[in-house]
Amino acid sequence: MITAGCGNNTLNAPVAVVDKHSITVGEFELKAKLYGLSISTKKEAGQFVNLLINDFLVLEEAKKQKVSFTGEEMKKEIENFAPDYASPETKKELRAVGIKYGQWLNDIREKITRKKIINMVMKDKIKADPEDIKDYYWSHIPDFRTGKKVEASQIVLDSEEKAKMVQQFLMRGEAFDRLAKKYSITSESKNGGSLGYFGAGEMPSFINDAVFSMKKGEISGIIKSPYGWHIFRVDDIQEDKTPKFEEIKDRVYEKYYDIKKDEYFNAWMQELRKNAEIKIYEDTLDKLVEPKEVLK
Which of 23, 102, 211, 212 is the most exposed, having the fewest neighbouring CB atoms within 10 Å of its CB? Predict the structure, then answer.
């Protein structure tokens, strides 16, 4: 890819023009860095320049709609990307990849603006009838069903002899939680060995195979693993459940809205592009992915 060392004429060369606004080589390369992309083929370059065109059109629409945001919104968005964004270390990391701190902040501003205008437009376009939401729920019930979950506890020992000793204590009726706190070698011992609730496949197979075949209140035999010798207890079982629509209607609406948002966004972008004058310079794209070539 062409680098910043190619000179100002090269950096100012247009990759595309959108309604008299030039997307230059310099902007293309800066945005690629900000997006964390390495573009090495003509196809990738073409896809990325079209993304930049879309970004510009969305920002222009935001100007027309006079979209604004607060300093608090800016602070929150920045912290999502880098909690210690103001630190010298963050600025040093940006400089190391050729990004100025001000350029990074401006990119964050643009991201917030695009997000706000997209949400504004989509909320106006997507009118969800309550019956549509219910229909979506009934046709996507598997998406909302919760699988079987088990709440279990364990005692882990570092030798089989100790495991057999604890097993004897359990058979005599001593409290599982107390024995876990006293003898178990793992971090959850302080909580009586509780592993909390988990579904099938969320734990290592030696745990799943044991507890998902047990009944509530049952204590396992001694099970060896790479971590030691385990004794499990099943504390509770939550069977498969299909929640009622009224219980999760907000979650159903969110999923419905996200799907419709994608559909409407694509249609909206096609409309914006249709009403814009767009020219992409194919010869510039060619040279962007030819390292040995320099734009004249």
Answer: 102
Same domain (yes/no): 63, 13: yes
Mean pLDDT of the chain: 88
C-alpha–C-alpha distance, residues 88 and 79, integer Å: 15
Q: Which domain holds residue 194?
A: 146-238
Q: pLDDT of 47-92, one tens digit each? A: 999 999 999 999 999 999 899 888 888 888 887 776 666 667 778 8
Q: Kindly report the backbone phi and psi dihedral angles of residue 63, in degrees, each rounded to the nearest multiple of 5, phi listed first.
A: -65, -45
In the DSSP assignment, the letter for residue 200 is T
The larger pLDDT score, comparing residue 127 to residue 59, is at 59
Dihedral angle sign, alpha carbons of residues 75, 81, 82, 88: negative
Residue type present at position 144 = F
Q: What are the distances in angstroms from CA 87 to CA 33, 83, 84, 237, 274?
A: 20, 9, 6, 48, 44
34: how many CB neighbours lie within 10 A of its CB?
A: 18
In what side-by-side order are the strands of the sheet with 228-238? 194-199, 149-157, 228-238, 223-225
Residues 101, 187 within the same domain: no
Query: How much is the pLDDT for 63?
Result: 93
